[in-house]
Amino acid sequence: VSTETIDEFCAKNRLSHIHILKLDVQGAEFSVLQGSSRLLSEQSVDIVYMEIITAPTYVGQRSLAEYLQLFSAQGYELFDLYNVHRKNFRMIQSDAIFVSSSFLRRYEDGG
């Protein structure tokens, strides 16, 4: 299967900004984010809405802490968790929204 990173796709199609990036790729979210490193480092993505699986499910699965670290290093904040699924009182997965600090500033300033 031929693949292309989000950075490559956006460069090829002259897209410089993404308002909302929605990810649900069955455990490959971290890899997709790594392929978006240019856009994320430039905070050219306002909002990332994605599924995070916290219970051991996939080989090579990344932890919630690794996602938090990746986003924090790029200037993104965890905005909220939604659709939390639990099994035996333990969170097994959740949808998460991360927001760029530049978008938050614009939003908080009313613009």
A few lines on this structure:
This protein is an alpha+beta fold and 111 residues long. The protein contains 5 helices and 4 strands.
Shape: globular
- Structural category is alpha+beta
* Unreliably modeled segments: none
Radius of gyration: 15 Å
Largest sheet: 4 strands, mixed
List the total number of helices: 5
User: Strand fraction band?
Assistant: 25-35%
Helix content: 25-40%
Order of strands in the sheet with the most strands?
Answer: 1-2-4-3
- Would you report the number of β strands? 4
The ordered string of helix (H) and strand (E) elements is: HEHHEHEEH
Distance between the termini: 42 Å
Mean pLDDT: 93
Would you give an account of this structure?
- The chain has a four-stranded mixed β-sheet.
- It is built from five helices and four strands; from the N terminus they run αβααβαββα.
- The model has no long low-confidence stretch (mean pLDDT about 95).
- It is globular.
- It starts with 5 loop residues before the first helix and ends with a helix.
- It is of the alpha+beta class and about 110 residues long.
- It has helices at about 5-10, 30-35, 35-40, 65-75, 100-110, and strands at about 20-25, 45-55, 75-85, 90-100.
